[in-house]
Amino acid sequence: MKKLKIAVIGLGFIGLPLSLSYARKGAHVVGIDVSESLIKEINQGISHHLEFYEGKSLSEILQEQRKENRFYATNHYEQAAQEVDHYIVTVGIPVRNGDPDFSYLTSACESLVKVLKRGDCVILRSTVVPGTTEEVVKLILEKSGLIAGEDFYLAYSSERIAEGRAFEEFITMPLAVGGVNEASALKGKEALSFVTEAEITISQIKTVETAKVIENIQRDVNIAMVQQFARFAEKMGIDTFELIRVANTHKRVQLLTPGPGVGGYCLPNALYYLQPKAQELGVSLSLLEMARQINDQVPRILVSMIKHALEQQGKTLAGSQIAILGLAMKDFSNDDRISPPHHVVEILLEEGAVVKAYDPAVPANYDFKVDELNEAIQDADGLIYLTVQEEFLEINWLEMIKLMKKTPVLLDGKNRIPRSVEGGALLLRI
Ligand SMILES: NC(=O)c1ccc[n+]([C@@H]2O[C@H](COP(=O)([O-])OP(=O)(O)OC[C@H]3O[C@@H](n4cnc5c(N)ncnc54)[C@H](O)[C@@H]3O)[C@@H](O)[C@H]2O)c1
């Protein structure tokens, strides 16, 4: 294969490590983003993403690839177009009040159409409403006068990596790709296999788009089911985690473990990508909708658990100081978008609690966020453990409890606080 020259559009949690994965393999990579501050940071070798590969952090890999002149970031599509003939689009489709907002994707395509050349290959890797590649992206790109499949290649391949394991999974995660015609699918597959060493399955675009959405939804539903098992186990006086461990010894059972809710960009949004098409087609998604509601209610259940426990001790949640450990949407992540811990904080504040949240990995600042673990813990009446971060693994729980008020309530949403912990604390688990 001749030297691959590729632009990655959207330099977020996916686009930046993906760009660097191509660069590491020797491609010439231009990263395109609309955020000037992000471009500046990236070109200076700065990133907050908690990704590591072969002992190096993402920032180190970024600095290395910048030094090798294999990668730089820009907001000029024209400049990128002079240097590349492949594009991977990774801008998101956020969901606002249940509706997918296509504006980032359409605006990226509107910028791309101005510079698209004959022979270029465009691969969409965002998670989308099924049908988007052919019904939205293709229509915009053909405004160039070039025909998809004839004058340029157009393919869709879903992104399946998990944040925190991006570099490894770009290489090892099997992929699926669809093209507007066979040549597009093959061209897309060729570009993907520059980084991916795992199997790449070719299928119809619509099938690949829909598969991605249902891959996410099946996790949402599995977690909702386990949440109901957890509520049942609680009333039965059974340990939920032990219950799941035992059930999972069955070779064909794969229950996930309950946590403080379902967060991040992918799982909570998935249903809302399927819904518009299902409505158009008159298909019911009632089970999936119910699962979403169950998962959305978990933060409220957690707050009512701690409220009830405080009341048993003659206190009220209003006026109590609650320490929150972890704001990221999942363990060992800096990503706090659509994060259940934020929902927990919101409800606590509504209830009149004083919240001090600590997460050493999340760079964003909030009024309720503190800079030190002890600041969150000192004199707290209760604590809710919501996301695991490296620093939390070192916690001496007995020492922590000493800093809190007498007989504090600890609510463990992660099954991480030793069950034997004493010191007068009341330990609750999800
Ligand atoms: N984050 C994940 O773990 C994950 C996993 C699988 C799939 N996905 C999917 O991948 C896609 C990207 O997710 P993400 O987490 O990287 O999102 P992100 O929000 O972190 O990154 C998107 C980037 O696109 C940029 N952008 C917006 N409009 C643009 C435009 N017109 N031109 C150029 N850049 C533009 C934004 O500034 C941002 O930096 C989404 O569709 C998501 O559903 C994400």
CATH architecture identity of the largest domain: 3-Layer(aba) Sandwich
In total, the number of domains comes to 2
Bound chemical compounds:
nicotinamide-adenine-dinucleotide
Rg calculated over all Cα atoms: 24 Å
Percent of residues in β-strands: 15-25%
The CATH class of the largest domain is identified as: Alpha Beta
Name of the CATH superfamily of the largest domain: NAD(P)-binding Rossmann-like Domain
Note the overall shape: globular
Main structural class: alpha/beta
Uncertain ranges: none
Q: Mind describing the biggest β-sheet?
A: 8 strands, mixed
What's the arrangement of strands in the largest beta sheet? 5-2-1-6-9-10-11-12
CATH topology of the largest domain: Rossmann fold
Distance between the terminal alpha carbons, to the nearest Å? 52 Å
Q: Report the mean per-residue pLDDT as an integer.
A: 96
Compute the number of helices: 16
**Count of distinct strands:** 17
Helix content: 40-55%
Task: Summarize the SSE layout with pairings.
Blueprint: E1 5-9, H1 15-24, E2 28-32, H2 36-43, E3 52-53, E4 56-57, H3 58-67, E5 71-74, H4 77-83, E6 86-89, E7 95-96, E8 99-100, H5 103-113, E9 121-124, H6 132-141, E10 153-157, H7 166-172, E11 175-179, H8 182-192, E12 200-202, H9 205-236, H10 240-247, H11 267-281, H12 286-312, E13 321-325, H13 340-350, E14 354-358, H14 373-377, E15 382-385, H15 390-393, H16 397-403, E16 409-412, E17 426-429
Parallel strand pairs: 1-2, 1-6, 2-5, 6-9, 9-10, 11-12, 13-14, 13-15, 15-16, 16-17
Antiparallel strand pairs: 3-4, 7-8, 10-11
